[in-house]
Amino acid sequence: MKIPLVDLRAQHTALASELKEAFERVALSGQCVLGAEVERFELELGALVRARHAIGVSSGTDALLCGLTALGIGAGDEVITSPFTFFATVEAIVRVGATPRFVDIRPDTLNIDAGAALAAITPRTRAIVPVHLFGIPAALRGLDKSLKDKSIFVFEDAAQALGATLEGRPAGSMGELAAFSFHPTKPLGALGDAGALTTNDDALAERCRQLRVHGAARKHHHALLGGNFRIDALQAALLRVKLSHLQQSLAQRSRNAQSYTEALASVAGLSVPRVPLEVTSSWAQYTLRIHEKRRDALAVHLAEAGIETAVHYPRPVYAQPVLAHLGVRPEGFPEAERAAREVLSIPVHAELTAEQREHVIGSVLAFFR
Prior knowledge:
This protein is α/β, with parallel strands linked by helices.
């Protein structure tokens, strides 16, 4: 039995007729960049996130870059964020000329918390970028009130969290701005790269729309230095197909996660994800923690059983060679360092069959026996 971490073949086979119709609709329309398909997708996405504006862009990375630029963040500014995230979170901060300031993660959710972020604020802090890791929203309680008079923005990195909620509020609606990724492996995945920004701020939304088309308010009139951050009409149309099935897909991911937790929670030497009561996760990943330096041995064991796994992430972001100039010392981030040694993600996608799920559970249990 071969069980991939993400089964795009099965996902696209089930939606083949709808995806084909969307492809033909765009091909025959002659509108390949922006246009009606993008506008409809943005309206549908905004309704899901409960945001007044959704702005489709070319990738989750470009969403971060475009959003930071729209917020006016640049040289001399500091941005507080997590050291345990995909590289793009911090890459975008450095690309706009700002300095990332890291806050260690919580051992339960692997996200930064509001208290630690507030304590890290300096006079140069312009934004906090909480990462909703693996589809579990970071606790943001208290940030709005504390930052209200400090001109400090909350910019959610919600790349993995579409459909997740915190205290009933959707990820992507809790800060001034939020970035989403629609990489094919995400719960809502394009057939290529795509992303989006969401906001309830009219001025920010207009600035993001200008930035995605080279800073142009109208054709050949460039008021800002932006970039080519546009989402393709084809990707928007294909995403609309998948968006109509998203709630069903998220419910199946949740059932798979619940089955894993029920079967594995009591295994000695193993920790399953801990989701706070006030959170609904999108289960972008189901990430185990394996103690006593046995993580890599479990990955080999599962590979031999035909089960694909992944380490998200094998090192904190500050340990990447290109960021060595920041001079961040690992001793200040014991939880991020420990997580990098212990995490292992197993298949949780909506296309996972009951038989495959039981094979994963049985294989993990066999290892610990």
